Amino acid sequence: MDYRKIYAIQKNNEKRILKYCPDINDNSGIYILARFENGFKYAYIGQAKHLLKRLGQHLSGYQHIDLSLKKHGFYSEDNKEGWKIAYFNCNENELDKFEQEYILKYANDGF
């Protein structure tokens, strides 16, 4: 396995995230991916010790959310059904609490 290639892909993915969400940092926190399509609301809530790194990993992974990010891309005026990114920073010891709180909040909001 070529670790230099993996590192380069990760750095490129992080640049893509920063292009879309320039104020995101690599501190710990909660991230929220949300999109709307044909009247349906979709959301994914995650936690990360390193937000930018984790979101970059989603762009080259194969989990359900990773594949959906690849398929739908990020929201833009030209891509109204793309994923929007929101996030907030918190201490590592609060990640589980806030992730559960926001999953419940979004579920109650119809996502």
How do the strands and helices of this protein lay out in sequence?
Elements lengths: L2 H18 L8 E9 L2 E9 L2 H8 L5 H9 L11 E6 L5 H14 L3
Antiparallel strand pairs: 1-2, 1-3
Helix pairs in contact: 1-2
Describe the protein in words:
- This protein has 111 residues and is α+β, with helices and mostly antiparallel strands.
- The chain has helices spanning 3-20, 51-58, 64-72, 95-108, and strands at 29-37, 40-48, 84-89.
- The protein has a 3-stranded antiparallel β-sheet.
- β1 (29-37) and β2 form a beta hairpin.
- α1 packs across α2 (51-58).
- The model has no long low-confidence stretch (mean pLDDT 96).
Average pLDDT, all residues: 96
- Globally, the shape reads globular
Helical fraction: 40-55%
Number of strands: 3
| Proportion of beta-strand residues | 15-25%
**Unreliable stretches:** none
Please provide a brief summary of the model.
44% of the residues lie in helices and 22% in strands. The chain has 111 residues and is an alpha+beta fold.
